[in-house]
Amino acid sequence: AQRVTQPEKLLSVFKGAPVELKCNYSYSGSPELFWYVQYSRQRLQLLLRHISRESIKGFTADLNKGETSFHLKKPFAQEEDSAMYYCALRDDKIIFGKGTRLHILP
Amino acid sequence: GAGVSQTPSNKVTEKGKYVELRCDPISGHTALYWYRQSLGQGPEFLIYFQGTGAADDSGLPNDRFFAVRPEGSVSTLKIQRTERGDSAVYLCASSLTAGAYNEQFFGPGTRLTVL
Predict the structure, then answer these.
(1) Cα(A34)–Cα(A68) distance, rounded to whole angstroms?
(2) Using one digit for the tens of pLDDT, what is the confidence trace for B19-48?
(3) Is A69 helix (H, G, I), strand (E, B) or coil?
(4) B75-79, strands of its sheet edge to edge
(5) In chain B, which residues have their Cβ closer than 8 Å to the Cβ of A88?
(6) Chosen from A9, A44, A90 to mutate, greatest number of chain B CBs within 10 A
(7) Which domain holds residue A73?
(8) A93 near A86, Cβ under 8 Å?
(9) Residue B31 to chain A, least CA–CA distance (Å)
(10) For residue range A21-33, what is the model confidence (pLDDT) as tens digits?
(11) Cβ–Cβ of A43/B100 closer than 8 Å?
(12) Count of Cβ atoms closer than 10 Å to residue B17 Cβ
């Protein structure tokens, strides 16, 4: 069965500290993996996708097929990073994880 | 240009009533998706349209839920005999066409509360 697991509901990190949001997936085949972000009072938006291998707002995510993981990382947290983060995989529809709330402490 | 819009933004209804939720996709987008987000959960897929036809309705929880997109643009999600468990934020998204490589753009959602 296709599934996305985000083990942490809440992650609190001090400003300037490294951030790692964990994501594991279950999928038969080659997955398309994404991270979505929802800032307070804003709509859900795409943050990055694994196929692009890009860094957005300082965030990166590497697909590890051996560990079936797609963790989101940022070396130095900023206060504006506080938001809900959803890991997702996609064929046509998107399958989302339950989300992790990232709280950056001043 | 305008993004995906959804109306109403909030809907409060009583158990057993019928509700309709509307989604206006980005102009020119042929694929349209409905998701439901319950409290503390990620969005869950309900149904998606490619053009006028429902390409995948496997996420609809039961036959009280139905969605249409008669002209391949605006879509309406219809819920009959609402139950308290239907309370959630209903999200709509659209993309240029279906397929994993086309970004889905999300609307602001409709918060449905069933009393």
Answers:
(1) 13
(2) 999 999 999 999 999 999 999 899 999 999
(3) strand
(4) B5-7, B19-24, B75-79, B65-68
(5) 42
(6) A44
(7) 3-105
(8) no
(9) 10
(10) 999 999 887 788 9
(11) no
(12) 13
